[in-house]
């Protein structure tokens, strides 16, 4: 932002000088000079260009996460949420999935994107986890999500579950439970919106992981947020095919 302000000031200065030369020529107070005329015209165009904020669209969409917000989210929601950032894959597809040291470096704040939220359904196993450990275990299929999101706009997105404190390894069983207990959905939607509020981000986009989550989000929050969908990483396909599907859904060139 400060770089842009400095650039804008320089731009207006160049425009002022260029207009001043034009005014002096108009009033015949200076002799004609081809070089000065050329520089004044070019300077006016370049100066006017500098006054425009070419990054305004990016600034509106991207929210820089503060360390205070990061730590607050970690304390409040780190038991079921995390970020779509992982340590590099090495010799095996699931290598380093459990490495949480990436969140200990303050430079990670430059990568995280609180305005993008990836939403899963619920915990599938009843275990205690460390803050930010959800979606980062070496078991399961999340490694395919790491592979698919690398070099996409979703890398660095916030990740969370829409249903908290209800463990069920079966999505079908979970959805039946929600149909029979609609109050659970209402309660979790309220909780989820409080979680969203604490992200301190604008222009949010929610990405549902799979059909079930999309249905829940679309039925309850479509009037408030932009909701999109990508295939769930638990789909029974290899990581290359999964990446192809996700990139097509994100309209990226594979």
What does this structure look like?
The protein folds into two domains: 2-54; 60-249, Uracil-DNA Glycosylase, subunit E (3-Layer(aba) Sandwich), CATH 3.40.470. Helix content is 45%, strand content 10%. Helix 1 (2-26) packs antiparallel against helix 2 (34-50), helix 5 (142-149) packs across helix 9 and helix 6 (171-180) packs across helix 7. With 254 residues, the protein is an alpha/beta fold. The chain has a five-stranded mixed sheet with strand order 1-3-2-4-5. Mean pLDDT is 88; it is low at 1-5 and 53-61. Helix 8 (211-221) links the parallel strand 4 (205-209) and strand 5.
Q: How are the elements arranged and paired?
A:
Blueprint: H1 2-26, H2 34-50, H3 56-61, H4 67-77, E1 82-83, E2 113-120, H5 142-149, E3 157-161, H6 171-180, H7 182-197, E4 205-209, H8 211-221, E5 226-230, H9 239-249
Parallel strand pairs: 2-3, 2-4, 4-5
Antiparallel strand pairs: 1-3
Order of neighbouring strands in the sheet with most strands: 1-3-2-4-5
The CATH class of the largest domain turns out to be: Alpha Beta
Strand percentage, roughly?
5-15%
Give the number of DSSP strands: 5
From the spread of the alpha carbons, the general shape counts as: elongated
Summarize the helix and strand pattern as letters: HHHHEEHEHHEHEH
Q: Note the gap between the termini.
A: 33 Å
CATH architecture of the largest domain: 3-Layer(aba) Sandwich
Helix content: 40-55%
How is the biggest beta sheet arranged? 5 strands, mixed
Count of domains: 2
Rounded Rg: 25 Å
């Amino acid at each position: 932002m400060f770089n842009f302000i400095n650039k804008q000031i320089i731009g207006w200065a160049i425009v002022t000088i260029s207009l001043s030369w034009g005014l002096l020529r108009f009033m015949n107070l200076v002799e004609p000079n081809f070089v000065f005329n050329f520089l004044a015209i070019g300077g006016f165009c370049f100066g006017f260009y500098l006054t425009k904020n070419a990054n305004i669209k990016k600034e509106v969409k991207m929210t820089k996460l503060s360390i205070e917000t990061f730590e607050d989210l970690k304390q409040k929601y780190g038991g079921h949420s995390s970020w779509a950032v992982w340590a590099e894959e090495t010799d095996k597809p699931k290598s380093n999935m459990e490495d949480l040291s990436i969140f200990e470096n303050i430079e990670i704040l430059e990568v995280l994107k609180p305005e993008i939220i990836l939403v899963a359904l619920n915990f599938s196993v009843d275990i205690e986890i460390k803050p930010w450990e959800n979606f980062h275990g070496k078991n399961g299929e999340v490694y395919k999500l790491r592979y698919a999101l690398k070099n996409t706009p979703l890398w660095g997105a916030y990740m969370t579950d829409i249903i908290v404190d209800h463990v069920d390894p079966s999505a079908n069983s979970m959805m039946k439970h929600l149909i029979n207990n609609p109050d659970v959905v209402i309660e979790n939607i309220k909780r989820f919106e409080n979680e969203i509020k604490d992200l301190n981000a604008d222009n949010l986009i929610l990405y549902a992981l799979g059909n079930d989550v999309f249905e829940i989000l679309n039925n309850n929050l479509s009037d408030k947020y932009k909701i999109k969908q990508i295939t769930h990483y638990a789909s029974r396909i290899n990581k290359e095919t999964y990446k192809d599907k996700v990139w097509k859904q994100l309209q990226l060139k594979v």
